[in-house]
Amino acid sequence: MRRSNHAIIFILITVLIDVIGLGIIIPVMPGLLMELTGAELYTAVQMGGLLMFTYALMQFLFAPVLGNLSDAYGRRPVLLISLAALGIDYLIMGFAGTIFWLFLGRLLAGIAGATFATANAYIADISDDDQRTKNFGLVSAAFGVGFVLGPAIGGLLGEFGTRVPFFAAAGLAFANALYGYFILPETLRVEKRRPFVLTRANPLGAVLQMRRYPLIMGLLGVIVLYQLAHDVNPATWSYYMIERFDWSEGQIGASLAAVGLAMAIVQGALIGPIVDRLGARRAALAGLLIGGIGFLGFASATQGWMIYIWIIPFAFIGIAMPALRGIMSSQVGAESQGELQGAISSLMAGVWIVSPLIMTQLFSYFSGPEAPIYFPGAAFFTAGVLMLLALMVSRRVLRSVP
User: Fold this and answer.
1) CA dist list (Å): 353 to 60, 61, 88, 389
2) Whole-number pLDDT of residue 1
3) What is the CA radius of gyration of the chain?
4) How far apart are CA 75 and CA 402, in angstroms?
5) Are 326 and 349 in contact, with CB atoms under 8 Å apart?
6) Could you report the per-residue pLDDT of 280-302, keeping only the tens digit for each?
7) Are 292 and 387 in contact (CB under 8 A)?
């Protein structure tokens, strides 16, 4: 196998391991929080939102730092150090005995897990313009596979103890870091690097650097709406399924695995033919529209089996971000790919700071005793509306894209 092929595989495995670490804890988190706090479900969900807030805040602060460090010192050292740090984080969470340690673990995970910007910059380095959307789709497919394996691994290994999944994830992270140390080549040539400037390595500075590109600034607005909607899943999925359908942890894990599998199929097998036929612009619009319909379907489901039906249209949301990233990546040079991907990741993480709080509060309010109407699907309904707004904005912004 050629060295470049090893590099692509390593990047995909890196993203996969990052997402597995997120997915492992989702099915068990509601029960764990109720056990540690003694609260009811509609109250425990608020603590879950605060945990996600902590993770997202670190992502928001450190994604541009890692992206800019990779532009200055290369992609390889940033990826390897971050992956090793992620393994340490999993060990801390594996030994956690109180809420404090859970928060500390999420804090460190947010820092170490801010590698998506560097991974996407790496993909941009090794991809031609006409291949970037497809390769970004492979990265997104790895994300989807992680959400298949994460909940499944968490449910399976959780039978042997609640700590076992975290130790398994730590082992995977360390093994991948070791594999990358021997296999991963550097893709950013020395003459393409630029000095690390702190003012460009902060969330606001990274986004402001994109003002030179009006198309990118417009699409960043689309990404804000997209991310607000997207974050309803990790924020409220488990709580919604328990409240609405009285699902067990195993059923929650199975449903999340189905979501991840459907996303992986769309992003790994279908996105290439779809982009070839429709082009990146139309593919992005189609993903936003069909994904929004899926959210509205989740909100209106009255039987558990209906969730699996609505997963099918929802999975096409996976076309939108790779297509948008491909369009945006084509607007900047090699020396700024890390900065661009850092700005995107930081903006998404910035939205993630507030979106779990918004979505968990919506779920808590409309499923609690004080709700004017009982509607636990309110957060998913809001997500559907946000996706349709993103569609309208993107149509206007992308008029100049052939």
Assistant:
1) 8, 11, 23, 20
2) 43
3) 20
4) 32
5) no
6) 888 989 999 999 999 999 999 99
7) yes
**Least confident among 31-40, 305-314, 316-325, 384-393:** 31-40
Predicted confidence (pLDDT) per residue in 53-62, tens digit: 888 788 777 7
Please give the Cα distance from 362 to 82 (Å, whole number): 34
Residue with tokens 């196998």: 1
Tokens for 5? 């092929």
Burial class (CB in 10 A: 0-12, 13-18, 19+), 374: exposed
Contact assessment for residue 290 and residue 313, using Cβ atoms and an 8 Å cutoff: yes
Q: What is the rounded CA–CA span in Å between residue 65 and residue 70?
A: 9
Cβ-count burial of 283 within 10 angstroms (0-12 exposed, 13-18 middle, 19+ buried)? buried
SS (H, E, C) the chain: CCHHHHHHHHHHHHHHHHHHHHHHHCCCHHHHHHHHHCCCHHHHHHHHHHHHHHHHHHHHHHHHHHHHHHHHHCHHHHHHHHHHHHHHHHHHHHCCCCHHHHHHHHHHHHHHCCCHHHHHHHHHHCCCCCCHHHHHHHHHHHHHHHHHHHHHHHHHHHHHCCCHHHHHHHHHHHHHHHHHHHHCCCCCCHHHCCCCCHHHCCHHHHHHHHHHCHHHHHHHHHHHHHHHHHCHHHHHHHHHHHHHHCCCHHHHHHHHHHHHHHHHHHHHHHHHHHHHHHHHHHHHHHHHHHHHHHHHHHHHCCCHHHHHHHHHHHHHHHHHHHHHHHHHHCCCCHHHHHHHHHHHHHHHHHHHHHHHHHHHHHHHHHHCCCCCCCCCCHHHHHHHHHHHHHHHHHHHHHHHCC
Can you tell me the distance from the alpha carbon of 146 to that of 24, in angstroms, rounded to the nearest whole number?
Answer: 9
Tokens 């730092």 correspond to: 65
Tokens of 60: 């928001």
Q: Which residue has the tokens 């992680």?
A: 146
Contact of 14 with 78, CB cutoff 8 Å? no
